[in-house]
Amino acid sequence: MKRIIQVEELAMFLLSIFLFSQLSFAWWWFPVLILSPDISMIGYAAGNKAGALTYNFFHHKALAISVYILGCYLQSEIIQLAGIILFGHSSMDRFFGYGLKTFAGFKSTHLGEIGK
């Protein structure tokens, strides 16, 4: 099952690269911004529950897709870019086994414990 999830997440990450290529930004913006959603880990400074909530908010694909659709509706490439980066980052994380966090701590995810 793990391999199927990885293939699926890789396909979604590649979709984010394709969608990015449809925008007018220079190619180097994608690698520069792809790790930016991890700033949400700062929530862990306020404890596991706050950390999980902030991390999961910025790593939820429904948010990413909603932001992208809003950008399409408003014809705003910068908002579309934000949605693509959120989506691509979440897919990349899940490909590597970093899932949405539980309140038990940073290493506890919906995909299992990180590092096992």
Strand percentage lies at: 5-15%
Counting helices, strands and paired strands, the structural category is: mainly alpha
- What's the β-strand tally? 3
**What is the element string, with H for helices and E for strands?**
HHHHHEEE
Bin the helical content. 55-70%
CA-to-CA gap between the ends? 16 Å
User: What is the general shape?
Assistant: globular
Average pLDDT taken over every residue:
93
Poorly predicted regions:
none
Query: What topology, given as strand order, has the largest sheet?
Result: 1-2-3
Largest sheet: 3 strands, antiparallel
Number of helices: 5
Rg (CA only): 14 Å
Describe this structure in words.
The chain is mainly α and 116 residues long. Helices cover 59% and strands 8% of the residues. It has five helices and three strands. The chain has helices at 2-21, 29-33, 48-58, 61-74, 77-95, and strands at residues 101-102, 105-109, 112-113. It has a three-stranded antiparallel β-sheet with strand order 1-2-3, with helices on one face. The longest helix has 20 residues, at 2-21. The radius of gyration is 14 Å and the shape is globular. The two termini are 16 Å apart. The mean pLDDT is 93.
